[in-house]
Design brief:
The structure is a single chain. By secondary structure, this protein is an alpha/beta fold. It has one domain: 3-Layer(aba) Sandwich (Rossmann fold). The protein has eight helices and nine strands. β3 and β4 form a beta hairpin. α5 packs across α8. It is globular, with a radius of gyration of 17 Å. The protein starts with a helix and ends with a helix. Hypoxanthine binds next to β5, β8 and β9.
Amino acid sequence: MSKALNTIRKIAGSEPIAAAIVLGSGLSALGEALGDKLTIPYGELKGFPGAGVSGHGRDLLIGTMGGKRIAVLTGREHYYERGNAAAMRTALETMAELGASTLLLTNSAGSLDERFRPGELMLIADHINYAGMNPLIGEKTDRRFVNMVDCYAPDLRAKARGLAEKLDIRLNEGIYLWYSGPSFETVAEIQMAIRLGATAVGMSTAPEVILARFLGLKVWACSSITNMGAGLSSETISHEHTKTMAVQGAEKLSKLVPALVEEL
Ligand code: HPA
């Protein structure tokens, strides 16, 4: 048993969780909705992400949502923080060890497509690993050759689309392209991403999806659109703006995610 798992079981007991959720920039509202919540700072969990980025939490929450026991990772470590694409490996392994069979990922992203306006959500149907880094580099077993077809589970995407319609939330599907950051993209890079077929860009998620599929977790992921990509609108892109705009997406995710968890 890993050290982190041991610590969590001592604090929260050994009842398994059904799913784990990772919160993106400015999306902490989702964690606040958790019932019977226990909070464990990452600092107490060996191998969990370190210092962090403003707008991201650094706690593991265990509680109930949609009638199920779940864990919420209130913040992630991004590749751009230390150049480690596998920074979330221990945290995600621990979620699998706690019994999670599904990982729900959220992030903030810049849109490349008029269908996804700031304040709206984009359901991720697939991704392009443009950063080119892979969290499984150095993994010794043949399990490293992960099949990535349908890595964003088609049945969960269909469920989410149905629920969004009932909840009156616009939810189109798109392709997320991972740029490493931390600088935002140039106008030319945004034009290239559009030509490659992406509909949104962001600095996270893709390595976590690879890790999750490696661990056998089913994946669902959704972007909260905070801005149009560089050069596509007159607004100035900044981390402050991302955090401010994420509130609108967070409100929508706070309705959609619990409904989805209920149906897992
Ligand atoms: N680019 C990359 N990541 C982002 C953006 C963006 O425009 N907006 C929010 N996260």
